[in-house]
Amino acid sequence: MTKDGNLPVPLKQVDLNVRIKNDLASYLMTQHYVNIEDVPLETIFLFPMDVKAVISKLTCQFTLPDGSSTEVETKVEEREKAQA
């Protein structure tokens, strides 16, 4: 969603790669969004998930207007430390 207007950013494609072993599932989800605006957007990504789920890594790759790309990776911390 855009930060100012809470309008959705167009989602063009979702790819899932799921592995299940015993009672543990891991998956890689790739979502492709397109900024149709003429200016960069500041967005908020809401990721609903089950309370028992664990995120170990979140990486965002951006394709820039000149065709190059850049990548941002999250830093995973314990809940209390992250909230502080």
Task: Describe what this molecule looks like in 3D.
The structure is a single chain. The chain is mainly beta. The radius of gyration is 15 Å and the shape is globular. A hairpin with a 5-residue loop joins strand 3 and strand 4 (69-73). Strands 1-2 form a two-stranded antiparallel ribbon. Strands 3-4 form a two-stranded antiparallel sheet. The protein has one helix spanning 79-83; strands spanning 11-21, 24-33, 59-63, 69-73. It is built from one helix and four strands; from the N terminus they run E-E-E-E-H. It starts with 10 loop residues before the first strand and ends with a helix. The chain has one domain (11-83).
Fold blueprint:
Layout: E1 11-21, E2 24-33, E3 59-63, E4 69-73, H1 79-83
Antiparallel strand pairs: 1-2, 3-4
Supply the key terms.
two-stranded antiparallel sheet; 6% helix; mainly beta; 84 residues
User: How many strand elements?
Assistant: 4
Structural class: mainly beta
- How large is the radius of gyration? 15 Å
- Give the helix proportion (percent range): under 10%
Low-pLDDT runs of 5+ residues are none
Percentage of residues in strands: 35-45%
Q: Which geometry do the CA atoms define? A: globular
- As laid out across the biggest beta sheet, the strand order is 1-2
Task: Tell me about the largest β-sheet.
Answer: 2 strands, antiparallel
- SSE pattern, N- to C-terminal: EEEEH
Count of discrete alpha- or pi-helical segments spanning 4 or more residues: 1
Q: Average pLDDT, to the nearest integer?
A: 80
**Straight-line distance between termini:** 25 Å
How many structural domains are formed by the residues? Answer: 1
